[in-house]
Amino acid sequence: MSTTAVYNMLQDLRLLARRDSSEHRPLVDRELEQFRLEFLNAFDAFLDLGTDNMQPFIVVANKIISNNRDLIKWLKHQLELEADW
To answer: CA-to-CA distance for 3 and 21, rounded, in angstroms?
Structure first.
């Protein structure tokens, strides 16, 4: 898997973890955010040290992202609309 694909997965997980957040009321899904940070640490170790312990994270992340594909698409669309203002 390319580094760009992993980065995109991390971004999708970040969107999901903050899906109920707003400018005035920041909320984070702590369990999902903890998983994302562990995945990010594994990704950093891969980039810095060449370790290859990302596979378990990739499997779980793929499952989370596929189960929430429509929500992720909607969240990205909302971000685009906010950016247009």
So the answer is: 27
Nearest to 33 by CA among 21, 17, 56: 17
Q: What sign does the CA torsion over 28, 32, 38, 40 have? A: negative
The mean pLDDT value of the chain amounts to 91
Tens of pLDDT along 39-77? 999 999 999 998 888 999 999 999 999 999 999 999 999
Rg from Cα positions in the chain? 14
Rounded to whole angstroms, the Cα distance separating 15 from 79 reads 10
> Residue 26: in which H helix or E strand, if any?
none
